[in-house]
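TASK: fixed-backbone design
INPUT:
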């Protein structure tokens, strides 16, 4: 599933199940301007309501290639709630004075972050979209060190946005880290369960009409 379809689907489902007010446009505006970590927290809560707190996933050890079963809890993935929203911050990196804001859905809306040559969303374009101003002006091409330092600061601003799992391989004892994308995982769960859901709806409708027919025959 492409990154564009994931985020469009994420926005669509949250607009339908979460109410911030009476108007749908209000919901869309608020969702678009929330920090991305807040959206991840919302999708984690929605997943827990839908399928429960436990998550079972399979990963491959990069060392021995063993397939491992990973048991997670939504409650463990959620960061403690903060009474203060993630706000803009000022930071000096490599003699650049930057004003940043956390990554938001608006930063992943695609016209200003898609490379028109490759049609791919680039990390640098996303990072640049989170920079409110820079003194002096940033170069046209950021070096890797500068880019990594800004990314590190964005992660500090919004830790819920970037979930990293620490895995201990039971076979070779290798310790490694992998990213976890709950929005993508949740949609894959929904898609995998869709055939069973459709079958259950079919049988529910069939048995309802059968029971209704028997009821009228017995009158």
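OUTPUT:
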């Amino acid at each position: 599933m492409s990154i564009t379809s994931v985020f469009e689907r994420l926005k669509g489902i949250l607009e339908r199940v979460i109410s911030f007010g009476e108007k749908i446009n209000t919901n869309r505006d608020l969702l678009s301007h929330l920090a991305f970590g807040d959206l991840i927290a919302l999708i984690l809560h929605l997943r827990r309501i839908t399928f429960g707190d436990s998550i079972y996933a399979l990963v491959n050890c990069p060392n021995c290639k063993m397939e491992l079963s990973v048991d997670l809890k939504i409650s463990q993935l959620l960061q403690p709630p903060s009474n203060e929203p993630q706000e803009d911050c000022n930071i000096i990196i490599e003699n650049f004075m930057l004003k940043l804001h956390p990554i938001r859905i608006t930063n992943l809306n695609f016209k200003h972050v898609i490379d028109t040559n490759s049609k791919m969303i680039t990390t640098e374009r996303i990072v640049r979209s989170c920079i409110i101003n820079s003194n002096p002006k940033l170069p046209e091409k950021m070096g890797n060190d500068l880019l990594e330092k800004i990314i590190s600061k964005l992660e500090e601003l919004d830790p819920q946005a970037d979930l990293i799992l620490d895995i201990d391989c039971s076979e070779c004892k290798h310790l490694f880290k992998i990213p976890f994308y709950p929005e993508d995982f949740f949609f894959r769960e929904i898609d995998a369960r869709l055939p069973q859901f459709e079958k259950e709806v079919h049988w529910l409708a069939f048995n309802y009409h059968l029971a209704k027919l028997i009821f009228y025959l017995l009158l």
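COMMENT: The beta strands are 54-60, 67-73, 89-93, 96-100, 131-135, 163-168, 175-180.
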